[in-house]
Amino acid sequence: MPTLYRDYRPQKFADILGQNHLKITLQNELASGTLGQAYLFCGPRAVGKTSMARVLAQTVNCERRKEGKSEPCGECSACESIRKGNFMDVMEIDAASNTGVDNVRDNIISSARLSPSSGKMKVFIIDEVHMLSISAFNALLKIIEEPPRHILFILCTTEVHKVPDTIISRCQRFDFKRISPSEIVKKLGRIASEEKIEVSREVLEDVARQSGGHLRDAESLFGQVLALGGDKIGAEEAELVLPRHHHQDALLLIELILKKNAGGAVALVNRLADSGVNFKSFIEETLMMLRKIMIQSAQPGLAEKLGLDFGEQLELRVGVLATQMPLPVCLRALRRFLDLAQEKNSSIPQLPLEIAVVELCLSADQSSSPAMSTAHTPAPPVTAATTAKKEASATPKSGAIAADLSEEEVLARWPEVLLKIKKYNHSLSFVLQNCLPQALRSGNIALRFKYKFHRDRILDASVRGIMESILAEVFAGQVEIEAILDENIELDSRPLAASSSPTPAPVVESSPPPAPAKPTDGVLGSLLQSFGGEAVS
């Protein structure tokens, strides 16, 4: 099997994949002659930390690099020796196997006092530096703080939190990021061209997706694919070595849930069971797809910035689902699949997933509450008021706009809004208790807030989606929110204040209270109602 990550190791800054924010900084320092003497490269594994360190070491020792330039020539004797790993003035030290203070004293401190033997600078690349002992860090501290002018330290680590602050403060810290799937696909395509093998784009995207943003993992996996032999490799051949995935089936399951097709969803689950699918992996794949849909719905374009790229074919289906699936429905499915991922194994492997998809299909309508949460919610006392609320909260027809209501009518139904919101988020219920709703006109309702941070909370896209779905349920039609900041409103004088509790208890004057009175007025009372607490002496 070819070792692609060695054969195609970057030799110049231009060859390094991603990390443009770091390459620009280093190249500017090299071009202007303001290079530091101690750098800390931190970030996930297999994203180019050591490769960047070697290119930097090669650049500072390049014999043909002209003033103002920031790339090594790659042809001089120094560049050749560094590439082969036998340049005397570039020392790579594995801190995992040289953890003690004696190793640091013998390998670094003693050598640092000597001038370079043939190069311009002595470069110490210490990999996995967080593995050094405390004594070794203390021994290293002094020379990093005041290094000779001919010394360059490059510390690499995947666990920067284990590096002492005294070391971090004396280094220029560069944080590396995972590499996006699209960039990995381009790199694998170039490797395939160099190897003169035609590989389908579907295979390239599959390898990039399974690498998780780690280039070395992608190159190792791609090496297994190329080892199959032949001038052309497609999806069928690649399946022999690539771990199987079921992204298309995961998206199909989400589509069936959205259509409330419980029978089709159960049939799909059983088809997967018959084919020997690992349901734990399948649930994780479904969670990945739901997460992408959630982020795409909350803020279009954000998923690409986060590196959530599934390839052209999957992206088209995910994009369509993001426009069709209401955000509250997506959040409900995410929570249910998260619970499912934590459940223990069942004697019938597909049974937990069957239960989950049937529950989600039954509650897929945006106006229905989560099946799992309502199963454990005690029913409130049946009164004339609650009966009226149930009649008023009938599911609105798709596309229907809520009927106009006066401010008094909105205030009368506002406690029901607070009760339903509290099932999703206690703190959001508290925010809404401190606003003054206005009349409902043409499907629009204005909420007046005394405090800016309350108003800004409602303007958040995800919160706004939940709010509008709850209002659509309560007012039997589509409702759009307008949040207004009004510092002059008097919250204490609202008719809502007396009935803002989700479960008000009738007061009987003739009978004494069964327990001592509790301080449930004012701010303390609002907090107790919002977070479900009680006052104790």
UniProtKB/TrEMBL annotation:
Keywords, in A-Z order: ATP-binding, DNA replication, DNA-directed DNA polymerase, Metal-binding, Nucleotide-binding, Nucleotidyltransferase, Transferase, Zinc
UniProt subunit comment: DNA polymerase III contains a core (composed of alpha, epsilon and theta chains) that associates with a tau subunit. This core dimerizes to form the POLIII' complex. PolIII' associates with the gamma complex (composed of gamma, delta, delta', psi and chi chains) and with the beta chain to form the complete DNA polymerase III complex.
NCBIfam families the UniProt entry points to: dnaX_nterm (TIGR02397)
Annotated EC: 2.7.7.7
Pfam families in the cross-refs: DNA_pol3_delta2 (PF13177), DNAX_ATPase_lid (PF22608)
One Gene Ontology term of the molecular function aspect: metal ion binding
Membership in a protein family: Belongs to the DnaX/STICHEL family.
Domain AAA+ ATPase per the UniProt entry, residue ranges: 35-180
Keyword Cell membrane among record annotations: no
Protein name: DNA polymerase III subunit gamma/tau
Catalytic reaction(s) noted: DNA(n) + a 2'-deoxyribonucleoside 5'-triphosphate = DNA(n+1) + diphosphate
Function statement: DNA polymerase III is a complex, multichain enzyme responsible for most of the replicative synthesis in bacteria. This DNA polymerase also exhibits 3' to 5' exonuclease activity.
InterPro entries xrefs: AAA+_ATPase, DNA_pol3_clamp-load_cplx_C, DNA_pol_III_sug/sutau_N, DNA_Rep/Repair_Clamp_Loader, HLD_clamp_pol_III_gamma_tau, P-loop_NTPase
Species this chain originates from: Candidatus Falkowbacteria bacterium HGW-Falkowbacteria-2
Enzyme class: transferase
Cellular component GO terms, alphabetical: DNA polymerase III complex
Residue segments, region Disordered: 369-397, 495-537
Low complexity bias (residue ranges): 373-397, 495-510
